[in-house]
Amino acid sequence: MAKPRILVAQAIFPETVERLAQHFEVQANQDDVRWSPAELARQLADKDGALTTGAQRIDAALLAACPRLRVVANMAVGYNNFDVAAMTAAGVQGTNTPDVLTDTTADFGFALLMAAARRITEGERYLRAGQWKDWRYDLLAGSEVHGSTLGIIGMGRIGQGIARRAAHGFGMEVLYHNRTRLPPALEAECKARHVGKDVLLANADHVVLVLPYTPDNHHTIGAQELARMKPTATLVNIARGGIVDEAALAAALREGRLAAAGLDVFEGEPAVHPDLLTLPNVVLTPHIASATVATRRAMANLAADNLIAFFDGRGPLTPVNQLPGADEFLYQNGL
Ligand code: DGY
């Protein structure tokens, strides 16, 4: 029987491609060519499955051009690049990579918080520029992290990981806001208190965003929300760029209405809002929260495992949609 045909849409670990090749006829974009949506559709037109990263949009127009396609495995926990309704309507299974990146991403959220609140990258630029001449009582004085109040918006697995680090490691008071409240035992373990968004914004010394991007979450943090935050506060976004109104954030940082920010994700990435690039009090990183070698390997392997399990008839391991006739799954694959 002919092997299913798979497209690997961006370069990944060569050993993952080799593993896939034991099961499938694989075409892998190991040269990492950035395809336009039309080119992606052309490459996928004769494929049964795909391994994507968050950078390829799978929508109704692409699905109409790719009638053979049955499954798309995203090598990311976020899957806002999928039009899930269109995929389900077209009978295309989507999968993502939850769990394997939770702690790595939570570590990075904390690193960004520390870097922004304690002005680490600003200090490094200052030193490298030869500006460090002597000790000064207020040289690059930032805001306290330990013992302060942390607000987490989006309390999935990564949010919980950040809460544990904050409460247990840094003695912080943790407030969280989430669509659904955590079970009491989990709240107790994370030492986190569920509050409304406005209460969180007004009381937190630092706010970390870890909610999935959906049209409803577009600009969850805009001018109004920034105005509710303390002027001494830090804002960290490791979720998706569209959650923050970058122009409003840049204005707040420039005008001293917010002390600092740490951003790993951007609305038009890889483009960054030009105003942010001019500001000293924002730490900017290129969407690397899950980027350790071990975690990226685990993500690639889970995406490959999803494709293998799907075509074996075992069903996807971490589905994001339920196709008609498939076993019901408990939706638990968000951030
Ligand atoms: C994720 O897994 O969603 C990360 O943001 C990497 O894209």
What does the model show?
This protein has 335 residues and is of the alpha/beta class. It has two domains: 5-98 and 293-332, Rossmann fold (3-Layer(aba) Sandwich), CATH 3.40.50.720; 102-284, NAD(P)-binding Rossmann-like Domain (Rossmann fold), CATH 3.40.50.720. The protein has helices at 14-21, 37-44, 60-65, 84-89, 102-117, 120-128, 157-170, 184-190, 197-203, 223-228, 246-254, 274-277, 293-312; strands spanning 5-8, 25-28, 49-52, 71-74, 93-95, 149-153, 173-177, 192-194, 206-209, 234-237, 260-263, 282-284. The strands form two sheets. Strands 8-7-6-9-10-11-12 form a seven-stranded parallel β-sheet, with helices on both faces. The chain has a five-stranded parallel β-sheet with strand order 2-1-3-4-5. Helix 12 links the parallel strand 11 (260-263) and strand 12 (282-284). Helix 5 (102-117) packs across helix 7 (157-170). The longest helix is centred in the C-terminal third of the chain and has 20 residues, at 293-312. The two termini are 38 Å apart. (2R)-2,3-dihydroxypropanoic acid binds at residues 54, 76-78, 101, 290. Residues 6-321 form the D-isomer specific 2-hydroxyacid dehydrogenase catalytic domain. Keywords: NAD, Oxidoreductase. This is Gluconate 2-dehydrogenase.
What distinguishing features does this structure have?
7-stranded parallel beta sheet, 5-stranded parallel beta sheet, globular, Rossmann fold, alpha/beta, 335 residues, binds (2R)-2,3-dihydroxypropanoic acid
